[in-house]
UniProtKB/TrEMBL annotation:
It comes from the Archaea. CDD domains: ParAB_family (cd02042). This is ParA family protein. SUPFAM superfamilies: P-loop containing nucleoside triphosphate hydrolases. It comes from Halopenitus salinus. Pfam families: AAA_31. Residues 6-180 form the AAA domain.
Amino acid sequence: MSTSTKHVAVSNQKGGVGKTMVAINLAGALNQRGHTVLFVDVDPQGNATEGLGLSEVYEEPEPNLRSVLVSQDTALSEIIETHPEMDLVPSNIDLFKGEAELVTEMQGRKRLQRAVADVGGGYDFVIYDCPPSLLVLTDSALLAAQNVLIPALAESTSTRALDILFDQIDTLEAEYETSITEQAIVANRVEPDGEAEEMMTWFQETFEPGLPIFEIRKRVVLKRAWSNGVSVFEHTEDCDMEGEFDQLAAHLEDAL
Ligand SMILES: Nc1ncnc2c1ncn2[C@@H]1O[C@H](COP(=O)(O)OP(=O)(O)OP(=O)(O)O)[C@@H](O)[C@H]1O
Ligand SMILES: [Mg+2]
């Protein structure tokens, strides 16, 4: 659809904030809007791979994403799987070992970008689901995407997490002479209580208008869609958060 591929990494080193849930539903929203999507599961935990119904490939022997990044004897196109809403580069259990190996490889952090460049042009969007760490795989996804979407819980622990992530982005930009743009924050699992309201105000006062804030509520349908291996857009039950994911997708269409 678009002339050049748009890349976005979904990242926050804090665990369990909704990176994978946001990444899957953003991919679903983009697909719904008529875009082709490549989803890259960069997390050795493989939650997205499992959440998209491909848990069996997570345990398969090589070739897998480790062979692409570390051994470099496999093209990314060889390991792409299909899903009704997107194509998927699955994670694999070997990536735990692969991440440690990448540390000492020449240009280890640039290898994902090179691997995706070979196939990325065939897609409108490439979404990277990052692990909960600031190690080589997260750096790789940030460098490959050059755009970052940040899910964060509406609670006070998020302020330090965001400080640390922004510092890491600054360091990468300086080290690799590149630019990595924060595109939006997704406040996730927002519940109508005092702490969440205070944090939403803090997000808005700290980041808006430069950085849009999207708000996703805690919804059991999001969990059920995940269990069924699809986004809420493909899931049979309706979810009132579809509109917010659609607006997030529309924002990225325009911003990237
Ligand atoms: N808005 C939401 N409503 C209900 N459940 C949610 C919501 N967001 C996330 N969850 C659930 O919370 C858990 C953590 O979410 P998720 O795995 O997406 O976080 P993560 O940041 O990717 O975690 P990790 O850091 O381990 O990669 C999952 O079980 C997910 O289904
Ligand atoms: Mg995750």
